[in-house]
Design goal:
The protein is α+β, with helices and mostly antiparallel strands. It has one domain (about 1-79): Dna Ligase, domain 1, CATH 3.30.1490.340. It is built from two helices and five strands. The chain has helices spanning about 15-25, 55-60, and strands at about 1-5, 30-35, 40-45, 65-70, 75-79. Strands 1-4-5-2-3 form a five-stranded mixed sheet, sandwiched between helices. A hairpin with a 2-residue loop joins strand 4 (about 65-70) and strand 5. The longest helix is centred in the N-terminal third of the chain and has 13 residues, at about 15-25. The protein starts with a strand and ends with a strand.
Length: about 80
């Protein structure tokens, strides 16, 4: 499942994370597995894999089933 949220204000990582956690909690007990900042290119975990979104593949291989996009940030959760 994927949820897209556009916030009019410029949000930093901490604010985007708070919003994503709040949304994810509506789906049950949520564990964040990975994230990406598209503006800077930073991703956690910082691994490379097959030229694809490695942070997203990492999460999906660990049961990640909820992707939340907040402006320039994406977060993968297992719920």
């Amino acid at each position: 499942m994927e949820v897209d949220v556009k916030v009019d204000a410029d949000v930093g990582f901490e604010k985007a994370l708070d919003i994503a956690k709040s949304i994810a909690s509506n789906f049950g007990d949520a564990i964040m597995l990975s994230w990406c900042d598209y503006k800077t290119g930073k991703k956690i975990p910082d691994v490379d894999c097959c030229g694809e979104n490695s942070w997203e593949i990492y999460a999906k291989n660990r049961g990640g089933n909820l992707k939340i996009n907040i402006n320039d940030y994406s977060f993968m959760f297992k719920v």
